[in-house]
Amino acid sequence: MYMPPQFNSKDRAIAVQLMREHPFATLISNDEDGLPFLSHLPLVVDERAADRLVLLGHCAKPNPHWRYLQDRPRAVVAFMGPHAYLSPSVYPDLARVPTWNYLAVHCTVEARLVETPEAKDALLKRLIAEHEPAYAQQWRDLGEEFQHKMLAGIMGFELEVSALQCKVKLNQHRPESHQAMYARYSEGSSDEQALAAWMTRLGMVGAAAEAR
Question: Considering only CA atoms, which of 48, 12, 3 is closest in space to residue 164?
Answer without folding.
Answer: 12
